[in-house]
């Protein structure tokens, strides 16, 4: 340890961009910061990495502390460590987490004054947390074109209009709903259930669930359902 005694004392932290889908739009879960500086201002949920844990375990611990959820889909989306971002040198590893917001609204920790906000209309955030959100959205769009991660935002049973709305929100595009539905159904990726969601119309829309085994065989299939999209959100 003698070799390190004159080296910088940098703190390692994690921050979580927690995203949810309410059936119509994307939302982000924010908290009131409980310590100085920037006390009582809106922030991403974060914390320091303990000596005995990896950054991934630290991010899972932070998320569970806020939501009481385990085994949530999380993905590393960047490292932020510019000098001066906080009073003391702190390097933060950022993760985004995907949650079915409609199912888990009732289990949020009151300790942190956690609240869901529309992703594009959230309050001003501390430090470089806006940049962290941008990094998370960029990574989400890239990964979602290749893998079925957006289904983490949906309940186990969902409708075609819900899927379409979700992809429109993530990619900031307007889909041809009829064409999108036709291609999606013809892929065999969805299993139709014998029940309908009649919350939006008397006729209703059939519920589906994802055929995960078939999706693994056709993992690139969603690419052809989406119009050209920019990496910028």
Overview of this structure, please?
- Strands 1, 2, 3, 4, 5, 6 and 7 form a 7-stranded mixed β-sheet that branches. A two-stranded antiparallel ribbon has the order 8-9.
- With 233 residues, the protein is of the alpha+beta class.
- Helices cover 26% and strands 26% of the residues.
- The protein has 2 domains: 2-144, Nucleoside Triphosphate Pyrophosphohydrolase (Alpha-Beta Complex), CATH 3.90.79.10; 157-225, Winged helix-like DNA-binding domain superfamily/Winged helix DNA-binding domain (Arc Repressor Mutant, subunit A), CATH 1.10.10.10.
- The protein is elongated and about 70 Å long.
- The protein contains 6 helices and 9 strands.
- The termini are far apart.
Question: What topology does this entry show?
Answer:
Elements: E1 11-21, E2 26-32, E3 42-43, E4 45-48, H1 55-67, E5 73-80, E6 90-99, H2 101-104, E7 115-118, H3 129-144, H4 160-171, H5 177-186, E8 190-197, E9 205-210, H6 212-217
Parallel strand pairs: 1-6
Antiparallel strand pairs: 1-2, 1-4, 2-3, 2-7, 5-6, 8-9
Question: Short description, anyone?
Answer:
GO terms for molecular function: hydrolase activity. Pfam families: NUDIX, WHD_NrtR. The protein has 233 residues and is of the alpha+beta class.
């Amino acid at each position: 340890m003698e070799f390190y005694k004159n080296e910088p004392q940098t703190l390692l932290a994690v921050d979580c961009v927690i995203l949810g889908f309410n059936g119509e739009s994307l939302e982000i879960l924010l908290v009131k910061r409980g310590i100085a500086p920037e006390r009582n201002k809106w922030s991403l949920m974060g914390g320091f990495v303990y000596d005995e844990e990896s950054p991934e375990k630290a991010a899972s611990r932070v998320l569970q502390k806020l939501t009481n959820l385990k085994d949530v889909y999380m993905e590393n989306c960047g490292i932020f460590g510019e000098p001066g971002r906080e009073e003391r040198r702190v390097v933060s590893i950022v993760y985004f987490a995907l949650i079915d917001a409609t199912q888990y609204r009732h289990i949020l920790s009151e300790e942190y004054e956690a609240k869901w906000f529309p992703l594009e209309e959230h309050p001003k955030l501390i430090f470089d947390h806006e940049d962290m959100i941008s990094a998370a959205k960029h990574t989400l769009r890239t990964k979602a074109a290749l893998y079925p991660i957006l289904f983490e935002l949906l309940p186990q049973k969902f409708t075609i209009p819900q899927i379409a709305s979700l992809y429109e929100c993530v990619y900031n595009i307007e889909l041809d709903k009829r064409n999108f539905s036709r291609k999606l159904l013809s892929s065999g990726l969805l299993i139709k259930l014998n029940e309908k969601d009649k919350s939006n119309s008397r006729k209703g829309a059939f519920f589906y669930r994802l055929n995960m085994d078939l999706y693994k065989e056709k993992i690139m299939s969603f690419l052809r359902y989406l119009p050209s999209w920019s990496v910028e959100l």
